[in-house]
Write a structure and sequence with these properties.
The chain is of the alpha/beta class. Helix content is about 25%, strand content about 25%. Helix 3 links the parallel strand 8 and strand 9. The longest helix has 14 residues, at about 130-145.
Amino acid sequence: MADTERNFCVRYVRQPTGSVGSSNFRLCSEPLAECKDGEVLIRVAYLSLDPYQRRQMMPDINYAQPLKVGDVMVGRGVGRVIQTRHDDFNVGDWVKGHLGWQRYVSLPGMEVEKIEVDDFPPSIFLGALGSPGITAWVGLREVAEVSTGETVVISAATGAVGSVAATLARVSGCRVVGIAGGKRKCDYAVSRLGYDACVDYTRPDFREALAAATPSGVDVDFENVGGHIFDCVLERLNDFARVALCGLISQYNLTEPGGLYNIDKVLNRNATISGFRVTNYIDRYANALAELKGLVRGGRIPHVETIIKGLDKAPEAFVNLFQGAHLGKLIVQVDESIVQNKS
């Protein structure tokens, strides 16, 4: 690494009102941070784009670490150690953590996790073997406690969390019904991801189509979207149904989030809605990863990614995340050179 090399980063420069846009970010060229005692200098390979990052832009949000104007944009990433002043890390180690939208970052060793890439592509540690996969596992195994023979509905069916949740529900012996936007995604959910059925929420008869796809009602709702879609699912709940409330992506860009009309169904059906954050289940991570790795190696969880090349493309890609145009995990490839040299 040349002494004159600079760090390129994306900073969060303006709080959005309503929908987030590219103008809320700025690409910057800055001096490279010094690697201090106890730290590792990391060259970032991949960045994860996730709905939760929009929540961190909300004022007075009590969620993770709220963004302040001027911050480097937050985000999980994977990369390689290129300089180390920490005894537990060597140059060349692959690591993951909250690296932020930047080419280089120097962090305390305790804030990153060494990963054994083995025969996996490094980017999968931001998807099926990362927070999305573990989130799916926690939501179904720990929160909803799915059982054989149940009907499970998963909104945002073809996304990073939904696609893994589908496999976990299927291997548990459940009927799995997805909800996605457009015929292309619904066909993909059934043909590639193994859903028994997938309902297009853009259809004018969505409510009726959902009822047809869940003739025995809904025992578990893995909820990622909220709003009208969630409201329609509530109508289909069976007695003692469980809702694993993972996300509300339809609400994050709204200045006035919508309410629910069918909340009475929760009362009438003795149902339970449980919101959860995966970071509260750290003691389950090892069990989750063991099962997920087995399912990936066995071809049960498809490795589905939409990769955007170039850090400068991150703002536009993040905006498009909320349009639902991608399939699987949405990732920005920051540095192609270290990706090609994985070993």
